Amino acid sequence: MNLIGFKTEQGVDKSVGTKPGLSPAESRELPFAARLSTKILLLTIVFVLLAEILIFVPSVNNMRLAWLRDRLNTAAAAAIVIDGLPKVNLPRPLQDSTLMATGTKAIVLHKEDITRMIVVSEVPPMVNAQYDLSDMSFLPNARDALSTLIWGGNQVFSVRGPIGGSSMEIELVMEDKALREAMLVYCQEILLFSIIISLFTASLIFLVINRILIRPVARMTASMQGFAMDPSNPASVLVPPAGTDELALAARHLASMQADLQKTIRQQKNLADLGLAVSKINHDMRNILSSAQLMSDRLTDVGDPVVKGLSSKLVRTLGRAIGYSSEVLAYGRASETAPRLQRIKLRPLVEDAGEILGLSAGTDIAFVNDVPRELEVDADPEQLFRVIYNLCRNASQALESDTVGEKRVAISALREGNCVRVTIDDNGPGMPQKAKDNLFSAFRGSVRAGGTGLGLTIARELIEAHKGWIVLEDKAERGTRFRFELPDRAAA
Predict the structure, then answer these.
(1) Where are the beta strands (DSSP E) in 382-465?
(2) Which of 153, 303, 319, 383 lies at a 20 to 30 A Cα distance from 170?
């Protein structure tokens, strides 16, 4: 039998050991380029380089201004010395030496309203651009720096700036070739330095992230892969690390889920094995019961009225047993047969349940049937009998091991509008908290040792099939009280 949808041991679904959604290539260890750690390392390098680019423009701009100021200071020292000499024209060789030392084409000194050409080349150059270092605006200076770096090399420009704290200014005319070469060397140094910083920073970040993030994630991934391959192996359950961060919490939740799933798989395998055994036993039992029913039919021909009365009850009991056997074989479909509703009296069903359980006169358990004789209910008689029988049997079994003075099982019923309410009450020891927590759960909600809890599970399924509901009511005194309600189609 295929109990609750799981295959028997002979037909175990081998797909449990596969990894749904993963290809064989994905199930193996990932290559270095596809790993999360590699991606983080590369992204860190890229982001650090982007940050270096953001500071590249200010750095190049500052380097250009410092280079120009250095040239202005050198030329200003020479210009002040020459300006202090008598008003004579410097010899051509001396002018050329001065221009060569300062790297300029012309040096002009501005003081108050006087402008003096200190030295100038024989052919005055044509100036392509003019810069004033007294204007420290960032955007214009940055634009000029990028222009020199990208398009410079064969341009002539003039640069002007103050001399110290005096009112004099010095102006130089020079080619931008030397300036551009110096800027290119500086950019190469910046690039090399940026790469070194990027690699160093990325390595540190990678080591830290790999330790606190990648390794735990890799452990959980490996655990999930191993668990998917062999979920029944206890060693495949993740051992969560000690910690309070999110990954440690996720690992503990994963380990708990794996343990619960492993427990569920064991229970379902046991159910599958049990279902196979029950199906075999039940098949033979149904044949035996059928033979017993044939023999009990012959008892109805006996003239003794007592035997006739007992034989009719025996026939009904055997008929129910055969019906139960057939339904057990169909239990693997995980659903009960739809109820065949009909108008029936409720009290005879309760009397039959008491007689079959042996709760008649002369026993130490009083069976009180307070169901009105005229009360009718719209239900499936066999399924409703099973509900009442299971609940009464649980109550009688709880009372058998109890030591109270008077043992009692009472069944009462009444109609409320379009519903019939049935109450089954006993004065036994009551249900332990564990059974209440797992109420209506098969193999978990049993009250007594060795019980299966199937009685309450079946009762709830049958009541819900009738569109009704069942609850365990709280009692101030000792004992257990179940109440269920059935909608009445005729009354509605």
Answers:
(1) 407-416, 419-426
(2) 153
Does 447 reside within a domain? yes
Q: Given 150, 175, 194, which residue is the final one in a domain?
A: 194
Whether 384 and 462 share a structural domain: yes
Q: With contact defined as beta carbons under 8 Å apart, do 486 and 463 qualify?
A: yes
For residue 222 the two structure tokens come to 């490996």
Q: What is this structure's pTM?
A: 0.42
Q: Please give the backbone phi and psi of residue 424, each rounded to the nearest 5 degrees, phi first.
A: -120, 115
pLDDT, tens digit, 9 for 90 and up, residues 213-226: 878 888 888 888 88
Average pLDDT of the segment spanning 449-456: 60
Residue-range definition of the domain harbouring residue 303: 230-335
Q: Are 406 and 427 in contact (CB under 8 A)?
A: yes
Task: For 433-451, write each residue's pLDDT tens digit.
Answer: 877 777 877 655 555 544 4
Which residues face 254 on adjacent strands?
A: none
Domain check: are 345 and 482 in the same one? Answer: yes
pLDDT at 5: 34
Beta-carbon contacts of residue 251 (< 8 Å; ≥ 6 apart): 216, 219, 220, 238, 240, 241
**Shared domain check, 478 and 347:** yes
What helix, strand, coil percent values describe the chain, rounded to 5? 55, 15, 30
Beta pairing, strands 129-132 & 114-120: unpaired
Q: What is the mean pLDDT of residues 459-476?
A: 90
CATH of the domain at 357: 3.30.565.10
In a domain, 221, yes or no: no
Cα dist from 54 to 48, 50, 59, 60, whole Å? 10, 6, 9, 11
> Do 271 and 135 reside in the same domain of the chain?
no
Residues 41 and 172 both lie in one domain: yes
